[in-house]
Amino acid sequence: MRSGGVSGKRRPGRAAVAAVAAVAMSGRGKLIAVLGDEDTVTGFLLGGVGELDKHRKPNFLVVEKETSLAEIEETFRSFVSREDIGIILISQSLAELIRHAVEAHTRPLPAVLEIPSKEHPYDPAKDSVLRRARGLFSPDELR
């Protein structure tokens, strides 16, 4: 992984880029869902990500201290089952809390991408998609 940008944060790896490309090519009109802290979700909402489905359910969840683990997992599972969602962005710290549910999702769509949050930097060693991708490539191909 290369570091990049002014902030020195890591750029998405090949697996993340491939997942986004797969969604772009296969699912025109699919939504991006976001699970994260208030700052993370607000940033994506300001970028135009927020939508309601036909049942008036949003494609985002702002996780606060009072948000239960059951609600986080239930929302993640609902996003995975929605046909209108092509990518699920989840703060890596939240993905850690529901790791069993994240790793149980093995279909290519919706693609699940773990992202950093303001309080928790991205750790590639914890990213389940990146770990799976490493098993597909030789170490020389990942350089």
Query: Could you say which overall geometry the principal axes of the C-alpha atoms support?
Result: globular
State the secondary-structure class.
alpha/beta
Q: Give the helices and strands as they follow along the chain.
A: HEHEHEHHEH
Largest sheet: 4 strands, parallel
User: Measured on Cα atoms, how large is the radius of gyration?
Assistant: 15 Å
Give the overall average pLDDT: 81
Low-confidence stretches: 1-9
* Widest sheet: strand ordering: 2-1-3-4
Distance between the termini: 7 Å
The amount of beta strand, in percent, is 5-15%
- Helical percent range? 25-40%
Oligomer: single chain
Number of helical segments with 4 or more residues = 6
Counting DSSP E segments of at least 2 residues, the number of strands comes to: 4
Verbal overview:
The protein is α/β, with parallel strands linked by helices. Helices cover 39% and strands 15% of the residues. The protein has six helices and four strands, in the order αβαβαβααβα. The chain has a four-stranded parallel β-sheet with strand order 2-1-3-4, sandwiched between helices. The longest helix is centred in the N-terminal third of the chain and has 13 residues, at 14-26. The radius of gyration is 15 Å and the shape is globular.
Write the layout of secondary structure elements.
Blueprint: H1 14-26, E1 31-36, H2 38-46, E2 60-62, H3 69-81, E3 85-91, H4 92-97, H5 99-104, E4 111-115, H6 128-136
